[in-house]
């Protein structure tokens, strides 16, 4: 498929992440650190999960429910880890705020906190894309291409890049929702993140069916769009709130 | 959206995704990919088969090769779909289309330029469909014929395609290779066919093409090729006492050859021609080994198996040359003592209606040939079942058929020899020198019959008496000579098939074979030719024959057998056999030697081969093409799917677009947020 196609697939999966990194994350070193540690946490979660599931692998290829169980257990574990990650972040926020007080500097703004959450989410998303798409992309740089029997319209690498892009979006923005949800104690936000993650995971099982990608992938993008919309709405509301709160003091 | 609605939507999605796959049928063949190497193996499918390689002679080249230094990548197409091609393609040709295809390529240059590579499909079903296939000439090796009629059509099925040069790679697909390629071609009805194409990639770069050496002289000088050759084996029954030059008995020389050739280097069993003759020869040796009292007979039997006969009678010419030189390789023999020669040619197709008929082609009328013919008749009559018939060849034949005896005749026109074949005026082997001359092309009962009649004929010749039919003791002795039919059948399976092939018990008893599939192509001469060669350079079949003949022609002196671990025995009249299969061999008294088989025009000196100038005293050397085979690194073929470059570029553009759109989106969002914060 040549170098052009290989680069194309890589950009499809990680291009938006690259744009986000360049425009937002790279400006503040702390965000880069957050991104890296979040990537590490996600990879560690995968290692632990693979260790737990090792005795049961490889799963039989024509039965669906073991895969459903795998997705369910992975999502539950990763959501638990997300909560712990948030707890760790809260500790760090306290440390940063007290340090800022000591040197008479302003505390973390809302936008800073949102950016940290975004970096955390992007870390998860990038790890997912690298692990599930980029690592398989090396053969794409050679002359040959590959089509899966169950979906012969589109090359395997293209589908994997498209799915990875959806997951990057979902991971990035659901972290923002989750952090705000835990911080404000908002039940909707707290519940919706695991639900989105689980449904996205389960939707990939639809791809098992012959030509299932025709249904599975658009539905996945629907979930991603819902995540993006909900995040946008939530951020807008918080910004309006904070502006109203801080409004009188700024005058 | 309120919480309940949101949760409801999300849960519905989750439930739908669990239950949705169930009514769909999961696609049939599911190959699980567990790693990137697994994915690569599925993408690049290796195709198993047999190549056609580049061979060179003094005036040019024959055979096939990649046209340049790089791999050939060309889209697959079936021959019947070929119409107005723009770029070179890989053509899939079936065995029945093969001869017409190559003839067309040689005659039509514009057609040839559209051929990138060729894959030949030749399943077992084709052998029944084809009337005959022979890529050799009408009169093979006519330049060595001792008689003038070189236009005589010994091989009527001939198409001569193996003697032409082709500027593209040709590959014969094995059974698994055919399955792999068919799987690719059957995907043609898939929807992505408009922007992909299935290609075959040939890695068959020949070193002579790389170096630009296009004839034997140039390539031997550059070291980009090696001359064809091997090791012939001879053995005498009973063993000859080399030291005592007195009491040398006249010699009856029995000859067979062990090498064949075809369009494809590694698929040339040569079942009928000449391996059926070799197996009959070995069956006769085995039968005669059980006869006692050979040392009391009047004549000496010498058995000779030659190699390189397909490529200018290398074995016979070198053997005769060594006799002239009285070299170590032929110590104990002397050409003046060879009274008569009996060559066993193709004997695998003599069976018809329960009767096995063979034809005796004689070189000239002489007392020696008459003696051989009489012996054959007596042997024929000695069988109670009366199912063997030996007939003299038709007098309208111009002479002996293409055989090693032609070389003997050219060297010495007074040679008295008889060639035993299963045909009279023309070959009955319709697949002479083709990849289809395999085990199914011979009849084992014909080979057993030939072995039986040869064994008894040799015994009669060895006794030297014409009057054997009357003598009671000798006729009972004759009647006791039986060829072991199961031995012959086992040997046929060892030398003419891949299962069990050379891993059969019979062969493993004597040697440790390096390959399971017997490749009866002579191969190249690697290393220095000598009568005591480094055994790693000697082919499996030659080593097997040496060990087998040494054991069968050995005599037990005093019943004490000593073991030898390094291949040498203490006594000079002993040889060490079976030293490969068992860690320690056995020393037996036997006269069995290797004779190198290579062109008399070549000389090996200081690690390189040089071509000697023409010598008028060597008439066969004057017409010898001096065949060499190009060196090559690896030969492989793989098949994979390639996307059109437009699609690749579209993907790249899509990736860049998505990245840029995301960047713009982020910028827009940032400005919105900044505005929202700044609004007072």
Automatic annotation (TrEMBL), chain A:
GO biological process: Notch signaling pathway; protein processing
Compartments where located: Membrane
TM region positions: 6-25, 30-53, 65-85, 114-137, 157-179, 191-209, 215-236
Cross-referenced Pfam families: Aph-1
Superkingdom: Eukaryota
Membrane topology classification: Multi-pass membrane protein
Chief subcellular location: membrane
Presence of the UniProt keyword Transmembrane helix in the record: yes
GO CC annotations, alphabetized: membrane
Keywords: Membrane, Notch signaling pathway, Transmembrane, Transmembrane helix
Database matches in PANTHER family: GAMMA-SECRETASE SUBUNIT APH-1 (PTHR12889)
Family according to the record: Belongs to the APH-1 family.
Name the UniProt record assigns to this protein: Gamma-secretase subunit APH1-like
The organism of origin for this protein: Brassica carinata (Ethiopian mustard)
UniProtKB/TrEMBL annotation, chain B:
Membrane topology according to the record: Single-pass type I membrane protein
Pfam families in UniProt: Ncstrn_small, Nicastrin
Annotated compartments: Membrane
CDD domains for the chain: M28_Nicastrin
A cellular component term, taken from the record's GO annotations: plasma membrane
Alphabetized UniProt keyword annotations: Glycoprotein, Membrane, Notch signaling pathway, Signal, Transmembrane, Transmembrane helix
Main localisation: membrane
Domain Nicastrin small lobe: 51-208
TM stretches of this protein: 650-669
Transmembrane helix among keywords: yes
Entry keyword Transmembrane helix: yes
Listed GO biological process terms: Notch signaling pathway; protein processing
Protein name: Nicastrin
